[in-house]
Amino acid sequence: MQFLTSLQSFFDPFLLFLSADPLLRMMQGGLLFIGFVVIFLVFFVTRDVLLRTHSFWYMAFCIVLTALLPGVGFLLYILIRPARTIREREQEERVRSLTEKLLGSKARSGKKPSSED
Q1: Out of 11, 13, 58, 83, which residue is the most buried by the measure of CB atoms under 10 Å away?
Q2: Distance in angstroms (rounded) separating the CA atoms of residues 63 and 59
Q3: From the CB of residue 1, how many other CB atoms can be counted at a distance below 10 Å?
Q4: How far is 111 from 106, CA to CA, in rounded Å?
Q5: Model pTM?
């Protein structure tokens, strides 16, 4: 019981920002929740766009779009973002070049790639 009273006394200064009216307090809580969601979306887009492109202007556009129009901007970002990350594109290029080297060396040696399954 003493723990709850000490916890309440700790949070009293922070609760002064909230209204005594329950309806207003719910609205304040909703606005706080929406604020957290907007901040999360901006951070998510920032992290994601940094992994997908090197273009500063594209990064800035996506972050500003999400910050100014949080819900719609995030959905638009999901539509216009590059399909793969930079690392995935580099890995695909490495696999493609190694495959070409392997198939090219077999073609030069006179061996045809087998199509046995």
Answers
A1: 58
A2: 6
A3: 5
A4: 5
A5: 0.70
Tokens encoding 107: 């073609």
Q: Which domain holds residue 88?
A: 19-106
Q: What total of structural domains would you count in the chain?
A: 1
**Residue 86 to residue 83: CA distance in whole angstroms:** 10
DSSP state string for the chain? -HHHHHHHHHHHHHHTTS-SSHHHHHHHHHHHHHHHHHHHHHHHHHHHHHHH---HHHHHHHHHHHHHSHHHHHHHHHHHS-SS-HHHHHHHHHHHHHHHHHHHHHHHTTPPPP---
